[in-house]
Specification:
The radius of gyration is 27 Å and the shape is globular. Helices cover 41% and strands 11% of the residues. By secondary structure, the protein is α/β, with parallel strands linked by helices. It starts with a helix and ends in a 13-residue tail after the last helix. It has three domains: 222 residues, no CATH class; 262 residues, Alkaline Phosphatase, subunit A (3-Layer(aba) Sandwich); 77 residues, Arylsulfatase, C-terminal domain, CATH 3.30.1120. It contains 21 helices and 15 strands.
Length: 638
């Protein structure tokens, strides 16, 4: 036995060190993201070991095989064999460090562990590459940790990986090979369960953001390649007729009684402007004096949420009323070429000219292609911008103030009536503003780097409206103001659901007090903007939408994060995963979601909630897969 230990001890110590490294990753993750986590327990570190085991097996598989193959010492001591072992060991270490240390910071922006979609983002968005140096400059300590861990790994590997001159009998080598093989097969499956371990299994041990403590980024990244290429397909209901009793996206719009006479429409999407950064909602700062004054004259909704956590998820929710209910953004998926019911297309049948404005580099997040595909007549990005070169921020695109001024010029000469959507960009990492404003916009809020850019964008909006007011079409223009998603936070509410989806949704008209026509104490989300606007414009169209005209039908909140669905039915926030309802909260009175009401509801109530949840999930998956997110939904293709 002593001889066998001596033969394999270097390998055993190395594998043990890798498992320790993954626990250090977890500790660092918790340390740097403690403000986003509540109630971290030490048992999460123990329960995370199985998830670590899966990641270690796949990332170090070649090294493991070379270490346990029952070949002779003579072969193992060849230069080629040892070189291959070294390469595969350092490769596993490097990938582990890269994924897990980078996610220590990236998690703050997404509130979930990274998956393979990061590759799609890097491949399809060339502007992201330019931000990588700035990312590591801002978060230099991640590079320091990377270098320190890699140096320690090289030292440790060299120290314990000494040549063994004495060989083992063939029978013992084979016995050890079988033992290690069985051990690592168990690791590959993540334990002794009936099914291999999946990311959603972390919910057996934790909930909310704490699920990410149990997981590790290597695991979620690798497992995302095992999942269906684009989307799963659930079959909770055998009959579509039965399913439609609980959720039916095909609906008839009923017009509101609002005196709007074919108005021009401007829909502003403010980059990262969560409710937390708007002082109309958050009295702890005064970053947005202009928006505060505008919202005081607007219909501003108390319970308003985005349907996604990323910019790329906002456009489908707003313009085609399809929320982000999967890990893969619709815009970069194979389903982007499906036929959808879009707000621009609806308006064009009423004689509207439609345009989308985004000051980023053309091609950013495929916005230019997507907006064209859903009916926007024109796209105005950085390529079309005709201003000065110094208006470029050096990262994403054109600073907000000059681009918004450019937008007014284009709208002034545009055919009327028009629908224009304007997506700002300055309030995005690396949070840069024009140098001439560095001393003017230096507002502080919780030491968050986004604060000065929020001030700057608010000022840019003030100048935008100032110039618009001078145009003859201003008085007949309806404005909708929202944000694409939330961003960095140190506030407990805004770091977890539903607060991490809380964005402003406001309607403003210069001549019509819309707050007298809209009930602003009800739930509204991005997906509800399209059907609600159609109703406000007195349209009586049939439409396919996951949202509703909120003045006609109560909407259902729909979110997907960390492999779980969240639905809001009236005052209940429901968490649905592993094919069943798991948690229920009265979110309006229990904003921190501390009191799970699951055990206090009747069996009939939970069954109803479960069926409604399943109907939404199956409708989303089936209609996306079969290209039926349109008024031809009755035509079944499978």
């Amino acid at each position: 036995m002593k001889k066998i230990w001596k033969y394999y001890r270097g390998f055993v110590w190395e594998m043990a060190a890798v498992f320790v490294l993954y626990q250090l990753f977890r500790l660092i993750f918790v340390w740097f993201n403690m403000s986003y986590l509540t109630g971290v327990q030490w048992r999460y570190f123990v329960e995370g070991i199985w998830f670590d085991a899966v990641a270690v097996f796949y990332l170090f598989l070649p090294f493991i095989l070379l270490s346990i193959l029952p070949v002779s010492v003579k072969i193992k001591q060849t230069v080629l064999y040892k070189s291959l072992k070294n390469v595969f060991f350092y490769l596993g270490i490097t990938v582990s460090l890269l994924l897990n240390l980078t996610d220590v910071i990236y998690f703050r922006f997404t509130l979930r562990r990274t998956t393979r979609e990061i590759i799609e983002l890097l491949v399809q968005s060339s502007d992201v590459w330019g931000l990588i140096p700035r990312f590591f400059l801002d978060y230099w300590y991640i590079l320091l940790l990377f270098g320190g861990f890699l140096t320690a790994a090289i030292y440790f590997h060299t120290k314990v990986n000494k040549d063994t001159k004495e060989d083992l009998p063939v029978s013992q080598r084979w016995a050890a090979f079988i033992f290690f093989s069985l051990f690592f097969i168990i690791c590959a499956r993540g334990g002794f369960g009936y099914k291999p371990l999946m990311p959603v299994d972390a919910y057996k041990y934790a909930s909310g953001n704490e699920v990410n403590v149990v997981l590790n980024t290597s695991f979620t990244f690798l497992k995302s390649f095992e999942q269906p290429l684009e989307i799963d397909s659930k079959h909770y209901f055998l009959s579509e007729k039965e399913m439609e009793q609980y959720f039916n996206p095909k609906q008839q719009i009923r017009p509101m009684n609002i005196p709007l006479q074919q108005p021009n429409i401007v829909l502003l999407i403010l980059e990262s402007f969560g409710k937390e950064y708007v002082s109309y909602f958050n009295k702890k700062h005064h970053l947005t004096p202009f928006l505060d004054s505008l919202f005081a004259r607007s219909a501003v909704f108390r319970y308003s949420f985005a349907n996604g956590r990323r910019s790329i998820e906002a456009l489908p929710s707003i313009f085609i009323s399809v929320p982000a209910l999967s890990n893969n953004p619709l815009i970069t998926s194979e389903f982007v070429s499906n036929q959808f019911e879009s707000f621009p297309d609806k308006l064009k049948t009423r004689g509207y000219y439609t345009a989308f404005f985004h000051g980023a580099k053309n091609g950013s997040m495929n916005f230019d292609a997507f907006t064209k595909s859903i009916g926007f007549d024109e796209y105005f990005g950085m390529n079309e911008y005709t201003g000065a070169e110094e208006d470029f921020d050096g990262n994403w695109g054109i600073f907000d103030e000059p681009f918004l001024q450019y937008t007014v010029e284009k709208l002034t000469n545009a055919p009327k009536p028009f629908f224009a959507s304007v997506f700002t960009l300055s309030s995005h990492h690396p949070f840069k503003i024009p140098e001439k404003y560095n001393n003017r916009f230096n507002g502080k809020y919780d030491n968050l780097p986004i604060a000065p850019t929020v001030e700057y964008t608010d000022y840019a909006l003030a100048q935008f409206f100032k110039k618009l007011k001078k145009q003859p079409f201003f008085d007949n223009t309806l404005f909708i103001i929202t944000a694409d998603h939330t961003s960095l936070s140190k506030n407990e509410y805004f770091k977890q659901s539903p607060g991490n989806f809380a964005v402003p949704i406001a309607f403003y008209h210069p001549k019509i007090p819309l707050k007298n026509y809209l009930d602003t104490n009800i739930l509204i989300e991005h997906k509800d903007i399209m059907p609600t606007l159609l109703s406000m414009l007195q349209m009586t169209d049939s439409v396919y939408a996951f949202g509703t005209n909120i003045m006609q039908t109560k909407t259902v909140g729909m979110h997907y994060i960390n492999y779980q669905y969240e639905f809001i039915f009236d005052s209940l926030l429901v968490r649905f995963f592993n094919d069943s309802v798991q948690q229920i909260y009265y979110y309006q009175h229990d904003s921190m979601l501390r009191n799970n009401m699951f055990g206090q509801l009747s069996e009939a109530e939970i069954k109803e909630i479960s069926l409604r949840s399943k109907a939404i999930i199956q409708t989303y998956q089936s209609d996306l897969l079969h290209n039926r997110m349109n008024l031809n939904r009755s035509i079944k293709t499978d």
